[in-house]
């Protein structure tokens, strides 16, 4: 299968991109927007199945400061506006160099937040979203306060010692204690990825990235249960009605993006469709790769 890689100049740095496969006649490419912030595209590579099975190019990029888009720490730049400008730059590059002035977008977790802001337009940005044929919002929140309250609720179902270890870490900031790491691992096993070490190919594992971690801490905070960064109190709930792009919402039944979070988006975007994957977690696109790919591809075909 054909794979192209390259770099797009942005903000004095280089944004890495990867194109997997080619578009058969009548099919538009799928632009994938990764989560984190600071996570890189690697964990989303199970979406290659859309290129492999359905004759559609899948385009990934690493947001600046993570993955293959290396930068120093950029706290003076990181923020929603910065990453929206980068997304617009990627789109312009794909239109100019590949002729893809129309495409589909899939954003996962933080990537879905970016996709929604991009589709909303004002007040988040003023450069428009023409040519966006459809949007898939995968395991994303529309409101960080609801996301946080649901994370705390899910944490409450952990064994008492684990719950208390996580609570104490959020108070004293020590996340390196063995009991804290064990508790976090159990939370991730239940709600983020059931068997990540078994499901991921070695080439799909995100390499250690200190600057990407710094970006996450700047934007989110130090843990899943304390949002103290730039995304504190972030919300687009009151603006979802402005979205005029065909939208698919996906989430897993065991996802940290709980059904109430996903439903808030599906109810808020006019005409949106919601697909809930039984037994899926935040990494449902990898756990149920075949079905997830088929569901997304079916939606894309309806909106070429």
TrEMBL record:
Gene Ontology process terms (BP): proteolysis
Ranges where the AB hydrolase-1 domain occurs: 29-287
Substrates-to-products reaction catalysed: Release of N-terminal proline from a peptide
Entry superkingdom: Bacteria
Active site, renumbered: 109 (nucleophile), 255, 282 (proton donor)
Alphabetized UniProt keyword annotations: Hydrolase
One GO CC annotation: membrane
A Gene Ontology molecular function term of the record: aminopeptidase activity
InterPro entries: AB_hydrolase_1, AB_hydrolase_fold, AB_hydrolase_sf, Peptidase_S33, Pro_imino_pep
Enzyme Commission number(s): 3.4.11.5
NCBIfam families: pro_imino_pep_2 (TIGR01250)
UniProt similarity note: Belongs to the peptidase S33 family.
UniProt protein name: Proline iminopeptidase
Native organism: Parafannyhessea umbonata
Source lineage: Bacteria, Bacillati, Actinomycetota, Coriobacteriia, Coriobacteriales
């Amino acid at each position: 299968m054909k794979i192209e890689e390259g770099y797009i100049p942005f903000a004095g740095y280089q944004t890495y991109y990867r194109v997997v496969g080619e578009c058969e006649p009548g099919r538009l490419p799928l632009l994938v927007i990764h989560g984190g912030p600071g996570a890189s595209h690697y964990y989303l590579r199970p979406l290659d199945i859309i290129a492999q099975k359905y004759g559609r190019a899948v385009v990934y990029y690493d947001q600046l400061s993570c993955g293959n888009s290396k930068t120093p720490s950029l706290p003076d730049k990181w923020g929603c506006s910065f990453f929206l400008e980068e997304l617009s730059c990627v789109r312009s590059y794909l239109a100019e160099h590949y002729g893809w002035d129309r495409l589909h977008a899939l954003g996962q977790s933080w990537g879905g937040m970016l996709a929604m802001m991009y589709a909303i337009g004002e007040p988040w940005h003023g450069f428009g979203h023409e040519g966006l044929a459809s949007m898939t919002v995968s395991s994303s929140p529309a409101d960080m306060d609801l996301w946080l309250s649901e994370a705390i609720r899910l944490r409450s179902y952990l064994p008492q010692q684990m719950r208390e270890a996580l609570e104490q870490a959020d108070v004293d900031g020590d996340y390196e204690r063995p009991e804290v790491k064990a508790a976090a691992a159990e939370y991730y096993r239940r709600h983020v990825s059931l068997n990540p070490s078994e499901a991921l190919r070695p080439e799909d594992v995100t390499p250690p990235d200190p600057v990407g971690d710094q970006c996450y801490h700047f934007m989110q905070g130090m843990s899943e249960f304390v949002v103290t960064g730039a995304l504190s109190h972030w919300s687009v709930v009151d603006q979802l009605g402005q979205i005029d792009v065909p939208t698919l919402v996906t989430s897993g039944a065991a996802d940290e993006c709980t059904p109430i979070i996903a439903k808030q988006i599906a109810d808020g975007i006019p005409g949106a469709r919601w697909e809930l994957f039984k037994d899926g977690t935040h990494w449902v696109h990898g756990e149920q790769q075949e079905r997830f790919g088929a569901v997304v591809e079916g939606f894309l075909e309806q909106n070429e």
